[in-house]
């Protein structure tokens, strides 16, 4: 099989083909690689040098922190929120300073009296702290961007939503269109089936954004905007044409 | 003997009548089953896909006012006339035609060329290269859009690359900032994202071609360009047509990628395509009391344009094929 298709010996096409494909592969890999390693950089670092490999978040043994007072913008774990006075709230002075993004919580009970007595505005260097907290701070600094996405960006909630939409709408789409597919290809009503298939076939031409305005008005009227059921209904309905086609061919 | 015959005769007579009733009953029961099977799916489909189409056409002939609780009057073709008088519509139309051209004349020929190179084994590590070209398909258009927005942004990697290569630290990548050139980076993003899809389609169909045909052409002394132009392309003309139709339909409804690449404001207005124009009119222009009716008119125009373009490419393909045969 390969003999007939393969071109023997040197042809002009070969180096040319390599150039095209290697170029294309680089065009795919490099942006994705850049995006991947940039996710481990702090914002300041990204602005300073857009190509440099991440360093700030990993070289964090001697990072300087500042004691801050609790504020509305600060997201605290529950046990810290319950008794804020027992914790030292430390904010990084080098990574996203003054924005309450990279903040560490250290219980005062575990610290030397001198350290525990530092107040708002005082500086603390990471290696002054007990070993245990040094390690914890180091880890949480490295994963700073990902932790922000999870905590501040509420990623778990969004992932859960995606899973619900995908699972429920795929299941109901497949279930409903298998039912239609079975009825259309196994039960003896050819004329009715032709009508049903024709009606559903029109759906291939329709994209979501060509009916988005009436859909929005309808869903608003029945109170289904901003609800999961509304989303699932729309996803299911727009999946039905394609999956009915496949289902009726499968059942036949 | 006799009673048996009698009974048989009697029972057959009754049985016949029974059967007729039976058939009717069974049919009716089957119809019940049929309706029970078809109705749930069909009802959802009709409610959410079919009915809004009619609603949208109806809406575009009114002055539906959402600010007054949906009061409306019939206004005839007013929305369509406003649309045709709007310079933004024509700008979006022009950009959309650029996107269609990039898809139909860029993605498809390039995808075909790449597939042909892989098919003729001009490179090694074919599955690696194949997956590299196909990889962007696995990303969501929003992710690709944001990635490209960062790449071509004023302080992005592309600007930096220009600064390094030209040695001028004030140099910027300005294509995204000008109305005349904004579609160029977007076209690159479209090619980057979607070419792999067509490459896979073409490659799958190329591999279905009987190798003996190519071999026979070689034995008959056909040169490489002849094999390509006279053997491969005619066999695949159907696939090319279907891909073209897919590309046209896809690029007319393409919204997410461009929406994510261009930042809101002047840049997005420069890069405006019809679906974005529709979205901005209907959902962001709150001062326009006819925003939903006007938006419906635009979305109907999109459907109309895509039907016309698909019919056009069908006719062109037919004429082309007729020429080949003649």
Describe this structure in words.
The complex is a heterodimer of chains A (252) and B (326). Chain A contains 11 helices and 4 strands; from the N terminus they run H-H-H-E-H-E-E-H-E-H-H-H-H-H-H. Chain A has 252 residues and is of the alpha+beta class. Chain B is an all-alpha fold and 326 residues long. Chain B folds into 2 domains: 50 residues; 242 residues, MetI-like fold (Orthogonal Bundle), CATH 1.10.3720.
Q: What would you say about this model in short?
A:
Chain A has 252 residues and is α+β, with helices and mostly antiparallel strands.
Oligomer: heterodimer
CATH superfamily placement of the largest domain in chain B: MetI-like
Q: Kindly report how far apart the N and C termini of chain B lie.
A: 77 Å
Give the helices and strands of chain B as they follow along the chain: HHHHHHHHHHHHHH
> Which strand-content bin applies to the residues of chain B?
under 5%
Beta-strand portion of chain A reads 5-15%
Distance between the termini of chain A: 34 Å
Rg over C-alpha atoms of chain A, rounded to the nearest angstrom? 29 Å
Low-confidence stretches of chain A: none
Question: Number of helix segments of chain B?
Answer: 14
Main beta-sheet annotation of chain B: none
**CATH C-level of the largest domain in chain B:** Mainly Alpha
Give the strand tally of chain B.
0
Task: Give the overall form of chain A.
Answer: flat
Mean pLDDT of chain A: 89
- Output mean pLDDT of chain B: 86
The gyration radius over C-alpha positions of chain B equals: 29 Å
SS elements, strand count of chain A? 4
CATH topology name of the largest domain in chain B: MetI-like fold
């Amino acid at each position: 099989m390969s003999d007939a298709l393969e071109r023997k010996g040197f042809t002009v096409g070969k180096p040319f083909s390599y150039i095209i494909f290697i170029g294309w592969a680089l065009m795919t890999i490099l942006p994705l690689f850049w995006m991947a390693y940039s996710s481990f950089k702090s914002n300041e670092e990204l602005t300073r040098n857009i190509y440099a490999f991440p360093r700030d978040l990993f070289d964090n043994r001697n990072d300087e922190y500042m004691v801050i007072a609790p504020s509305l913008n600060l997201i605290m774990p529950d046990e810290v929120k319950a008794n804020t006075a027992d914790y030292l709230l430390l904010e990084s002075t080098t990574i996203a300073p003054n924005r309450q993004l990279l903040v560490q919580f250290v219980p005062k009970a575990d610290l030397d009296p001198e350290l525990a007595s530092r107040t708002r505005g005082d500086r603390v260097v990471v290696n002054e702290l007990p070993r245990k907290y040094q390690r914890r701070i180091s880890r949480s600094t490295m994963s700073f961007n990902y932790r922000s996405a999870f905590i501040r960006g509420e990623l778990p909630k969004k992932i859960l939503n995606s899973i619900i939409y995908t699972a429920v709408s795929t299941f109901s789409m497949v279930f409903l269109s298998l039912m239609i597919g079975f009825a259309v290809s196994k039960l003896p009503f050819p004329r009715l089936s032709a009508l049903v298939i024709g009606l559903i076939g029109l759906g291939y031409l329709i994209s979501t954004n060509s009916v988005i305005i009436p859909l929005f008005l309808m869903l608003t009227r029945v109170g289904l905007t901003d609800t999961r059921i509304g989303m699932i209904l729309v996803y299911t309905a727009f999946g039905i044409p394609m999956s009915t086609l496949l289902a009726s061919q499968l059942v036949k | 003997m006799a009673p048996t015959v009698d009974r048989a005769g009697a029972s057959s007579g009754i049985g016949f009548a029974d059967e007729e009733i039976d058939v009717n009953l069974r049919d009716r029961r089957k119809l019940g089953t049929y309706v029970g099977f078809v109705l749930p799916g069909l009802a959802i489909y009709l409610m959410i896909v079919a009915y809004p189409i009619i609603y949208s056409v109806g809406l575009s002939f009114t002055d539906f006012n959402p600010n007054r609780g949906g009061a409306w009057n019939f206004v005839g073709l007013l929305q369509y006339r406003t649309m045709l008088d709007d310079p933004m519509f024509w700008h979006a139309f022009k950009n959309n035609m650029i996107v269609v051209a990039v898809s139909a004349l860029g993605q498809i020929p390039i995808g075909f060329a790449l597939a042909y190179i892989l098919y003729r084994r001009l490179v090694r590590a074919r599955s690696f290269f194949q997956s590299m070209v196909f990889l962007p398909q696995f990303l969501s258009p929003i992710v690709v859009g944001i990635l490209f927005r960062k790449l071509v942004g004023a302080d992005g990697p592309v600007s930096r690359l220009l600064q390094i290569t030209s040695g001028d630290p004030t140099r910027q990548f300005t294509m995204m900032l000008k109305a005349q050139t904004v579609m160029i980076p977007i076209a690159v993003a479209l090619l980057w994202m979607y070419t792999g899809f067509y490459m896979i389609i073409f490659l799958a169909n190329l591999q279905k071609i009987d190798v003996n045909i190519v071999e026979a052409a070689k034995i008959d002394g056909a040169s490489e360009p002849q094999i390509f132009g006279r053997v491969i392309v005619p066999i695949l003309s159907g696939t090319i047509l279907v891909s073209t139709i897919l590309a046209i339909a896809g690029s007319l409804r393409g919204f997410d990628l461009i929406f994510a690449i261009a930042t809101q404001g002047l840049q997005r207005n420069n890069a405006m395509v019809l679906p974005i124009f529709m979205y901005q009119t209907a959902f962001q222009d709150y001062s326009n009391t006819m925003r939903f009716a006007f938006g419906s008119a635009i979305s109907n125009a999109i459907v109309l344009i895509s039907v016309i373009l698909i019919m056009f490419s069908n006719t062109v393909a037919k004429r082309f094929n007729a020429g080949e045969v003649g």
